[in-house]
Request: fold
Amino acid sequence: NRLHATDITSSSFRLLWPKLLSQETGYYTLEYAPAADLARKRAQQVSGAHTSLVLSDLAPETTYEVALIPESNVHFFPPQTTRVTTLAEEISPVQVLISESGPRSFHVSWAPVLDSVVSYQVLYGPLPGNSVKVLEVDGRHNSTVVEQLAPNTTYLVTVTAIYRSGKEKSLSAKACTQEGERGE
Reply:
Protein backbone atom coordinates (compact mmCIF):
# COMPACT_ATOMS: atom_id res chain seq x y z
CA ASN A 1 0.00 0.00 0.00
CA ARG A 2 3.01 2.25 -0.45
CA LEU A 3 4.95 3.70 -3.32
CA HIS A 4 6.65 0.80 -5.12
CA ALA A 5 8.00 -0.17 -8.54
CA THR A 6 7.09 -2.93 -10.99
CA ASP A 7 8.02 -3.81 -14.60
CA ILE A 8 11.66 -2.94 -13.94
CA THR A 9 13.94 -3.05 -17.02
CA SER A 10 17.45 -1.73 -17.72
CA SER A 11 16.10 1.72 -18.65
CA SER A 12 12.64 2.10 -17.10
CA PHE A 13 10.26 1.12 -14.33
CA ARG A 14 6.62 1.68 -13.42
CA LEU A 15 5.78 3.35 -10.10
CA LEU A 16 2.54 2.54 -8.33
CA TRP A 17 1.15 4.34 -5.30
CA PRO A 18 -2.03 4.39 -3.20
CA LYS A 19 -4.78 6.81 -4.17
CA LEU A 20 -4.19 9.73 -1.80
CA LEU A 21 -5.54 12.59 -3.90
CA SER A 22 -8.14 13.12 -6.58
CA GLN A 23 -8.21 15.35 -9.62
CA GLU A 24 -9.80 18.10 -7.50
CA THR A 25 -7.72 17.89 -4.32
CA GLY A 26 -4.22 18.31 -5.67
CA TYR A 27 -1.34 16.85 -7.66
CA TYR A 28 1.83 14.85 -7.04
CA THR A 29 5.39 15.94 -7.50
CA LEU A 30 7.60 12.99 -8.34
CA GLU A 31 11.32 13.44 -7.79
CA TYR A 32 13.93 10.88 -8.73
CA ALA A 33 17.71 10.77 -8.92
CA PRO A 34 20.53 8.19 -8.99
CA ALA A 35 21.35 7.40 -5.34
CA ALA A 36 25.04 7.96 -6.11
CA ASP A 37 24.42 11.40 -7.62
CA LEU A 38 21.42 13.12 -6.02
CA ALA A 39 22.37 16.40 -7.68
CA ARG A 40 21.05 14.95 -10.95
CA LYS A 41 17.51 15.05 -9.58
CA ARG A 42 14.63 15.16 -12.04
CA ALA A 43 11.08 16.14 -11.13
CA GLN A 44 7.72 15.56 -12.75
CA GLN A 45 4.25 16.74 -11.85
CA VAL A 46 1.44 14.22 -12.04
CA SER A 47 -2.29 14.84 -11.84
CA GLY A 48 -4.00 13.84 -8.58
CA ALA A 49 -6.08 11.34 -10.56
CA HIS A 50 -3.03 9.16 -11.30
CA THR A 51 -1.78 6.23 -9.22
CA SER A 52 0.99 5.08 -11.55
CA LEU A 53 3.65 6.44 -13.87
CA VAL A 54 6.40 4.95 -16.04
CA LEU A 55 9.86 6.53 -15.69
CA SER A 56 12.08 5.90 -18.72
CA ASP A 57 15.48 6.96 -20.15
CA LEU A 58 17.16 5.66 -17.01
CA ALA A 59 20.69 4.33 -16.67
CA PRO A 60 21.17 0.53 -16.43
CA GLU A 61 22.30 -1.11 -13.17
CA THR A 62 21.62 2.09 -11.22
CA THR A 63 19.79 2.57 -7.93
CA TYR A 64 17.33 5.46 -7.98
CA GLU A 65 15.93 7.32 -4.99
CA VAL A 66 12.30 8.13 -5.74
CA ALA A 67 10.07 10.50 -3.73
CA LEU A 68 6.36 11.02 -4.30
CA ILE A 69 5.20 14.29 -2.73
CA PRO A 70 1.41 14.72 -2.55
CA GLU A 71 0.64 18.43 -3.00
CA SER A 72 -2.83 18.67 -1.49
CA ASN A 73 -4.88 21.72 -0.70
CA VAL A 74 -6.99 19.71 1.76
CA HIS A 75 -4.76 17.44 3.85
CA PHE A 76 -1.07 17.19 4.57
CA PHE A 77 0.40 13.89 3.29
CA PRO A 78 4.02 13.01 4.06
CA PRO A 79 6.20 12.22 1.04
CA GLN A 80 6.53 8.54 0.16
CA THR A 81 9.96 7.30 -0.85
CA THR A 82 11.36 4.14 -2.38
CA ARG A 83 14.59 2.89 -3.93
CA VAL A 84 14.58 1.12 -7.27
CA THR A 85 17.54 -0.52 -9.02
CA THR A 86 17.39 -0.89 -12.79
CA LEU A 87 18.52 -4.14 -14.41
CA ALA A 88 21.77 -4.72 -16.26
CA GLU A 89 21.62 -3.96 -19.93
CA GLU A 90 20.75 -7.00 -22.04
CA ILE A 91 23.05 -6.85 -25.06
CA SER A 92 22.79 -9.58 -27.62
CA PRO A 93 25.93 -11.18 -29.04
CA VAL A 94 26.98 -8.73 -31.75
CA GLN A 95 29.39 -11.00 -33.60
CA VAL A 96 29.47 -14.71 -34.25
CA LEU A 97 32.69 -15.83 -35.94
CA ILE A 98 33.29 -19.20 -37.54
CA SER A 99 36.92 -20.27 -37.94
CA GLU A 100 39.19 -23.31 -38.31
CA SER A 101 36.62 -25.01 -40.48
CA GLY A 102 37.46 -28.65 -41.34
CA PRO A 103 35.47 -31.51 -42.88
CA ARG A 104 34.07 -32.64 -39.50
CA SER A 105 34.30 -29.61 -37.22
CA PHE A 106 34.55 -25.85 -36.91
CA HIS A 107 35.27 -23.34 -34.19
CA VAL A 108 32.58 -20.84 -33.09
CA SER A 109 33.37 -17.70 -31.11
CA TRP A 110 31.29 -14.67 -30.17
CA ALA A 111 31.52 -11.25 -28.57
CA PRO A 112 31.03 -9.39 -26.34
CA VAL A 113 31.25 -11.47 -23.15
CA LEU A 114 29.02 -9.94 -20.48
CA ASP A 115 28.78 -10.41 -16.72
CA SER A 116 25.01 -10.51 -16.95
CA VAL A 117 25.09 -13.74 -19.02
CA VAL A 118 24.71 -17.04 -17.13
CA SER A 119 25.30 -19.31 -20.11
CA TYR A 120 25.33 -19.47 -23.89
CA GLN A 121 23.53 -22.03 -26.00
CA VAL A 122 25.04 -22.88 -29.35
CA LEU A 123 22.45 -24.42 -31.68
CA TYR A 124 23.62 -25.90 -34.96
CA GLY A 125 22.09 -27.94 -37.73
CA PRO A 126 22.59 -28.57 -41.46
CA LEU A 127 20.80 -26.40 -44.02
CA PRO A 128 18.31 -27.23 -45.31
CA GLY A 129 16.98 -29.43 -42.53
CA ASN A 130 15.54 -29.31 -39.07
CA SER A 131 17.83 -31.57 -37.05
CA VAL A 132 19.32 -29.18 -34.52
CA LYS A 133 21.84 -30.00 -31.80
CA VAL A 134 22.57 -27.83 -28.76
CA LEU A 135 25.81 -27.17 -26.88
CA GLU A 136 25.66 -25.44 -23.49
CA VAL A 137 28.61 -23.14 -22.83
CA ASP A 138 29.39 -21.47 -19.51
CA GLY A 139 28.81 -17.70 -19.51
CA ARG A 140 32.51 -17.03 -18.83
CA HIS A 141 33.55 -18.56 -22.16
CA ASN A 142 33.17 -17.05 -25.60
CA SER A 143 34.02 -19.92 -27.91
CA THR A 144 33.47 -23.62 -28.49
CA VAL A 145 34.30 -26.31 -31.05
CA VAL A 146 31.45 -28.04 -32.86
CA GLU A 147 32.41 -31.59 -33.91
CA GLN A 148 31.07 -34.76 -35.56
CA LEU A 149 29.76 -32.84 -38.56
CA ALA A 150 29.16 -33.94 -42.14
CA PRO A 151 31.75 -32.79 -44.74
CA ASN A 152 30.89 -30.24 -47.43
CA THR A 153 27.72 -29.12 -45.64
CA THR A 154 26.38 -25.69 -44.73
CA TYR A 155 25.31 -25.32 -41.11
CA LEU A 156 23.24 -22.64 -39.44
CA VAL A 157 24.77 -21.74 -36.09
CA THR A 158 22.80 -19.71 -33.55
CA VAL A 159 24.38 -18.39 -30.35
CA THR A 160 21.84 -17.54 -27.65
CA ALA A 161 22.88 -15.57 -24.57
CA ILE A 162 20.84 -16.49 -21.49
CA TYR A 163 20.83 -13.63 -18.97
CA ARG A 164 20.45 -13.77 -15.19
CA SER A 165 17.14 -12.01 -15.65
CA GLY A 166 15.90 -14.99 -17.69
CA LYS A 167 15.86 -13.04 -20.95
CA GLU A 168 17.45 -14.54 -24.05
CA LYS A 169 19.01 -12.87 -27.08
CA SER A 170 20.29 -14.68 -30.19
CA LEU A 171 22.45 -14.14 -33.24
CA SER A 172 23.00 -16.55 -36.12
CA ALA A 173 25.75 -17.22 -38.65
CA LYS A 174 26.30 -19.75 -41.42
CA ALA A 175 29.24 -22.13 -41.48
CA CYS A 176 30.45 -24.53 -44.19
CA THR A 177 32.48 -27.65 -43.52
CA GLN A 178 35.30 -28.52 -45.93
CA GLU A 179 35.09 -31.32 -48.45
CA GLY A 180 36.13 -34.63 -46.92
CA GLU A 181 39.27 -36.55 -47.88
CA ARG A 182 38.84 -39.15 -50.58
CA GLY A 183 38.19 -42.60 -49.22
CA GLU A 184 36.04 -41.50 -46.27
In short: The chain has two domains: 4-85, 95-177.
